[in-house]
């Protein structure tokens, strides 16, 4: 088994919105480009449920196939995408507090140790920035 190094990042934002507004943006995989500028194109293969796959084309041209590995209807989901350097897992969660929705996005990248240093300096900084930027755009679109 290949040894891996784990990179972790998370971002949380609070917005006046409905759970349905946030969920609609998450579940519309074909529309992820509206809130995640790192994605050039995305296409869901089937329905938004555990086990479904989606095709991604990133702005830099890298293509990948991800899998929705967990769905909690109206609360969150997790997807996992194998890449040439390891596996990237994205976790999306929300909680309602009165009129507010607290939205958290987390990314865990389990990267082959042999390329972890290169990933950490060349790719990870952009992924972290993209995490924060995409969450900001998502809550802006979801807000009432």
TrEMBL record:
| Listed Gene3D superfamilies | 3.30.530.20
Q: Which domain of life is it from?
A: Bacteria
List the SUPFAM superfamilies.
Bet v1-like
Q: What is this protein called?
A: Polyketide cyclase
Lineage here is: Bacteria, Bacillati, Actinomycetota, Actinomycetes, Mycobacteriales
């Amino acid at each position: 088994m290949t040894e891996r190094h784990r990179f972790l990042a998370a971002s949380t934002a609070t917005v006046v919105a409905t759970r349905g507004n946030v969920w609609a943006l998450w579940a519309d995989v074909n529309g992820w480009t509206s809130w995640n500028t790192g994605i050039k194109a995305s296409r869901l293969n089937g329905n938004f449920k555990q086990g479904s796959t989606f095709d991604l084309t990133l702005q830099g041209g890298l293509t990948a196939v991800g899998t929705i590995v967990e769905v909690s209807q109206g609360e969150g989901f997790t997807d996992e995408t194998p890449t040439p350097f390891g596996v990237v897992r994205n976790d999306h969660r929300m909680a309602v507090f009165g009129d507010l929705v607290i939205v958290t996005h987390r990314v865990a990248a389990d990267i082959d140790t042999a390329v972890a240093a290169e990933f950490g300096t060349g790719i990870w900084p952009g992924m972290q920035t993209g995490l924060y930027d995409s969450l900001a755009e998502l809550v802006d679109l979801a807000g009432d």
